[in-house]
Amino acid sequence: MPHEFPPGPPYARGAMAFVLAGGRGSRLMELTDRRAKPAVYFGGKSRIIDFALSNALNSGIRRIGVATQYKAHSLIRHLQRGWNFFRTERNESFDILPASQRVSEDAWYLGTADAVYQNIDIVEDYAPRHIIVLAGDHIYKMDYEQMLAQHVEACADVTVGCLEVAREEASGFGVMHVDDQNRIVDFLEKPADPPAMPGKPDMALASMGIYVFDTKFLFDLLRKDAEDPNSSHDFGKDLIPAVVKGGRAIAHHFSRSCVRSKSEDEPYWRDVGTVDAYFEANIDLTDFVPALDLYDHDWPIWTFSEITPPAKFIHDRDDRRGRAISSLVSGGCIISGSGVKESLLFTGVRVNSYADVDRAVILPYVDIGRKARLKNVVIDSRVKIPEGLVVGEDPEFDAARFRRTDKGVCLITQAMVDRL
């Protein structure tokens, strides 16, 4: 049966979401050797990009384009499998937009703005009233209709999604200075000394990489930028500062449109761009009351969901009992006479007898050999962990064999195992 969608909200229904999903995410190290950052697994079943796409869908947006570039096969395959339910006859569309020499025979996407510019003709065919530009590599739940409504009511040229961050952490973001009407009066891309928020000297207002434009205004801006030989063709570095200087740029606070269930106390937004951040965000989901509620039926995270049997726990002897404590265990997993604690297991993981797994993020179809002891690890998909392997007890030994972070998390790939 096809999916049936109710009529969308007034602004979202006339908008198109353009998702920028071409980045490698090199700080995730070997996790992005074979896939782009938006295609990295998260939360037991999903990929990172599913959060931005689900926000668009749940907000009522029914036209979506996804620009891909770096090692895109895994991402494209996921999108084709999990996001193929949009129907043309319902005025819906879902376009995968790899860099394809549409503008020049030797030009990949030169920057985030250029990725939209190279696809102007495709977007124009749909004639959306507004374009909402999204980063495809963050974890959050947000109702974009609220941001679209503010954009229209404020008569803005651009509306920028923003969140409050500690000043010492803000140098990795685009940082905004706003007046009391939320008009952006200055925009600094990754400043060394981020300006403080009015009345909050320890906090800064950081860009989420989410922008709303009237379509015609954006296209005029993109064409002008494309002709500028000195531009890096990037929204944060070039286009947004230009609008702040010569137009009307408005800040949209994430707290106004973040989606929270009854169990979520604070607005949740994470950039899982390092191995440590990725590990912590996944492990946090095993908390008794996690900061991110994946059980919220009112705002589901859509994804490609494999058909799998239920998780299975077998053997019941004192020294050989299949058990999981404070863990998330996905379909198709078999915990065979082994112990799992404070861990997240993706689809199809097998943990064999007498193994002990503690605080682990285990990607799909990993096989953990007998008597292995693993603590504080991220294991890439389809890795075969040898019988008796011990990780997480000797820092120097771990660092010589695997990718070990400053916080003591070991990333394990098949290539690393093969070198043992």
UniProtKB/TrEMBL annotation:
One of its GO terms (molecular function) is glucose-1-phosphate adenylyltransferase activity. Homotetramer. It catalyses: alpha-D-glucose 1-phosphate + ATP + H(+) = ADP-alpha-D-glucose + diphosphate. Belongs to the bacterial/plant glucose-1-phosphate adenylyltransferase family. Involved in the biosynthesis of ADP-glucose, a building block required for the elongation reactions to produce glycogen. Catalyzes the reaction between ATP and alpha-D-glucose 1-phosphate (G1P) to produce pyrophosphate and ADP-Glc. Residues 309-412 form the Glucose-1-phosphate adenylyltransferase/Bifunctional protein GlmU-like C-terminal hexapeptide domain. Alpha-D-glucose 1-phosphate binds at residues 109, 174, 189-190, 207. InterPro entries: ADP-Glc_PPase, ADP_Glu_pyroP_CS, GlgC_bac, GlmU/GlgC-like_hexapep, NTP_transferase_dom, Nucleotide-diphossugar_trans, Trimer_LpxA-like_sf. Pathway: Glycan biosynthesis; glycogen biosynthesis. Keywords: ATP-binding, Carbohydrate metabolism, Glycogen biosynthesis, Glycogen metabolism, Nucleotide-binding, Nucleotidyltransferase, Transferase. Its EC number is 2.7.7.27. It comes from the Bacteria. Pfam families: Hexapep_GlmU (PF24894), NTP_transferase (PF00483). The record marks 69, 108 as: Could play a key role in the communication between the regulatory and the substrate sites. It comes from Chelatococcus sambhunathii. The keyword Nucleotide-binding applies. Residues 17-286 form the Nucleotidyl transferase domain. This is Glucose-1-phosphate adenylyltransferase. SUPFAM superfamilies: Nucleotide-diphospho-sugar transferases, Trimeric LpxA-like enzymes.
